[in-house]
Design brief:
Helices cover 71% and strands 4% of the residues. It is mostly helical. α2 packs across α3. The chain is elongated and about 65 Å long. The mean pLDDT is 87.
């Protein structure tokens, strides 16, 4: 994506109507004022982007754990084979 297209994509806005619990709105208002966000929208936008990013990290972490677990036996065998080539903790010549 060119810089111009990227700039246009980040500036493009779409209005959505979201119903939030009153407590959530009050909390967002406190945060956006305390953290000097330009608006409530900016605060909610950043919070939403953070949440989406964290969900992506969680999915990656979960996939890595599944991969490590799936290869645990193979990895243990490789480690055991390597240990068998060592003499007193040193590679044998």
């Amino acid at each position: 994506m060119t810089n111009w297209k990227l700039a246009m994509a980040t500036r493009a806005k779409k209005r959505v109507l979201v119903a939030l619990p009153e407590q959530t709105v009050q909390s967002a208002d406190v945060v956006w004022r305390k953290e000097n966000f330009s608006s409530r929208n900016a605060c909610i936008d950043q919070a939403t982007r953070w949440f989406i990013q964290e969900q992506g990290k969680k999915k990656l972490r979960d996939a890595l754990v599944r991969g490590y677990q799936a290869h645990a036996e193979e990895d243990a065998q490789i480690a055991a084979d390597w240990e068998a080539t060592l003499v007193d903790g040193q590679e044998s010549a």
